[in-house]
Design a protein that fits this description.
Strand content: 15-25%
Distance between the termini: 75 Å
Structural class: alpha/beta
Length: 288
C-alpha cells in the first residue's frame, strides 16, 4: 500500500498543480470580466452622477453642426438629435468643439463621452470604437469646378489633382488611394473649402452627397458643381463612443430607435436637409 501511494504521489501532485493553475486562471478571467463590467457600468453611472453628456462636435459642419448667423448656440442635425436624446435620458449636454482629427482621440482619453459630427463607420474604426444605430444613410460625391469639372472624368483621374479635406476622413482615404495630393484643413468652414476649389487652389472635394448639395446651395455664385458621373461609397453616419461603453451604448441605441419610430428623426432630418429624410437608406445602385 505504501509503495502504491509513493507511485501515485507524483500524479496526485501534478493534478494538484493543474487544479491550482486552472483555479488561478479562472479567477483571473473572472476578475477581468468583473473589472470590465464595472468599467462599463461606471461610465454610465458617472454620466448620471454628473447629469450631463459631454459631446465632441465641430460647430463648423453645415448642416450637421454649425452656428446660425447671429446665434451663439450650436445647432444642426446631429446636434439636435443629441439634444433630444439627452432630454429623453434626463441629461444635459455640454458640447466640446474641435476638429475631426481630435474627436476620436478625445473619446479614447475620456475627455468626451460621445462624438457627433457626421462620422462614418468603417471596419478599421469599428475595431477601436463603438458606433450607434445609424443617424444617416448616404454616399460619396465630388465637388469640382463647374466650367471644366477640374479636368476629372472619374476617380481614376485624381492622380496629380489636389483634394481638400481632413486627413483621417474616409473621403481623404479614397482620394489618397486614387493618387490625389492632399490639402489638409483643420476645422475649416465650408466656404473656405469651396472657394479654394472655385479659384483653383484645390481641384476636388470628396464628401457626403447631402452635405455637398447643401454646401453648393449656400454659395451659388462660386464656380463649383457636383460631378455628374461620380457616385461611390454608400455609407452610414453614427454617434461614436469609446469601445466597451456598455450601458451607455444600450441607452443611446434604445433612445435613437425610439426617435426613429416616433418620427422625431425624420422631422429633424427634413428640417436640416431641405426636406430629405436621411434616416432611411437611399434607393440607389452604387458599388462599394
Amino acid at each position: 500500500m505504501t509503495n502504491l501511494i509513493k507511485r501515485l504521489t507524483p500524479v496526485l501532485l501534478m493534478g494538484l498543480v493543474v487544479f491550482v493553475i486552472s483555479a488561478c486562471s479562472n479567477g483571473n478571467e473572472s476578475n477581468e470580466a468583473n473589472s470590465e463590467k464595472e468599467k462599463e457600468t461606471s461610465t454610465w453611472e458617472k454620466i448620471q452622477d454628473e447629469g450631463k453628456l459631454v459631446v465632441a462636435t465641430s460647430g463648423t459642419l453645415y448642416p450637421t453642426s454649425y452656428y446660425e448667423e447671429g446665434s451663439d448656440e450650436v445647432t444642426g442635425y446631429e446636434v439636435e438629435v443629441v439634444k433630444e436624446m439627452a432630454k429623453r435620458l434626463n441629461l444635459d449636454v455640454e458640447f466640446e468643439e474641435m476638429g475631426f482629427d481630435g474627436m476620436l482621440t478625445s473619446l479614447n482619453s475620456g475627455k468626451v463621452d460621445l462624438a457627433a459630427n457626421d462620422i462614418t463607420s468603417t471596419e478599421e474604426r469599428k475595431e477601436k470604437f463603438t458606433f450607434s444605430e445609424p443617424l444617416k444613410y448616404s454616399y460619396g460625391t465630388a465637388i469640382v469646378r463647374k466650367d471644366d469639372l477640374s479636368g476629372i472624368k472619374s476617380l481614376d483621374d485624381l492622380d496629380g489633382k489636389i483634394a481638400a479635406g481632413a486627413s483621417t476622413t474616409v473621403y481623404m482615404k479614397v482620394a489618397r488611394e486614387h493618387g490625389a495630393e492632399e490639402k489638409i484643413y483643420d476645422n475649416a468652414t465650408n466656404e473656405q473649402y469651396l472657394r479654394d476649389v472655385s479659384n483653383g487652389r484645390t481641384d476636388i472635394i470628396l464628401n457626403d452627397y447631402y452635405l455637398q448639395t447643401l454646401a453648393l446651395a449656400a454659395f451659388p455664385d462660386l464656380n463649383i458643381t457636383i460631378h455628374p458621373d461620380i457616385q461611390y461609397y454608400p455609407n452610414n453616419q453614427h454617434i461614436v463612443m469609446k469601445k466597451g461603453s456598455g450601458e451607455l451604448e444600450t441607452k443611446v441605441n434604445e433612445t435613437l430607435k425610439e426617435m426613429k419610430e416616433d418620427g422625431t428623426m425624420k422631422e429633424l432630418s427634413e428640417k436640416f436637409f431641405n426636406g430629405a429624410d436621411v434616416s432611411v437608406k437611399p434607393d440607389l445602385d452604387i458599388e462599394n
